[in-house]
Amino acid sequence: MPKPTGLTWLAPICVFAQAFGVFAGDGACSEEGALPGASHGPHEGMPMWDLSCMVWRIGKILDFEAQVRWIAEAGFEAISFHASPGKAGVWVGLEPAHLDTEERARVRELLSRFSVCEIHAPFDCELAAETPAPVLEKLEEVVQFAADVGADVVTVHADAPDAAKDAAPQSWNNALDRLNDFAGRAGVRIGIEFMTGFEWLVRPRREWIGATLDVGHMYLRDGAGYRPYGTIGDLVRFLGDSLLHVHVHDYDGNVDHIEVGTGRVDFDGFLRGLADIGYGGALCLEANPDRVTPDGIRRSADYLRQRARGLGLR
After folding, report:
1. Which of the 8 DSSP states describes residue 247?
2. For site-directed labelling of 57, which of 81, 163, 191, 299 has its Cα 20 to 30 A away?
3. What CATH number is associated with residue 191?
4. Looking at the domain assignment, is residue 283 inside a domain?
5. Residue 166 lies in a domain
6. 11 by DSSP, 3-state: which?
7. Minimal CA–CA distance to 113: which of 84, 78, 67, 85?
8. How much is the pTM?
């Protein structure tokens, strides 16, 4: 995505949101690193979990402004997007390096109308047993960008250390300690998205680092992500208060990021697990735009709300 000449498109979006009251949030993203929505419970007359939608491409809608408008009109309470320019003609995000102080302030104004704001770190910023210093520096830049625009959590992909070992490499611990300190100063949580190896998030537990659980990915390779813990609900319960954010999509045994309710994921068990741990974050729909239509995104949201109600959780 070329460097924008300015984010003047944000103003009408904010006016639209205020005029039609399409957001369920309290008018501001969280402060001091606390995820909003934590007080939402099944007996308080409010939804237990706010639903989010990822900005990348929605059907044929590629323009960032138009996607944000669509998400608002579709009734999503929260929003997620990538700290990356995307791929021309395929998907878009926001590149931090292209946004000056004034433009970041305008993005913050827009995001303040959502209850939860997640930013996905670039795919080339993956944590590993040995994470190069330039990757850590870029992740710190993304966390600072998140703080500047009022986001709550930054999701980072990770290739976990060998689970068979009793201790993670010192380089892994050093990287997480560095990021934890930076995130604490910025007031932004970091959710690490693992395929396996969640133990490394709880030994030791760090205040500003937890998990972003990608539910659909847990079913890849015959459920290799969740089976060591039992069920998908058991994995959620294992994570407990280290679970900061959730990515939701289905998997049918061949492809992932498909419409919720059309694949193998045990969403009832997953939702029960969230209720058991008192999860207070958002559920972000990650629908592949080549596999899920805009109507399919709406059906996915409706499916989650209906299942939560059917289970007595909303």
Report:
1. E
2. 191
3. 3.20.20.150
4. yes
5. yes
6. helix
7. 78
8. 0.86
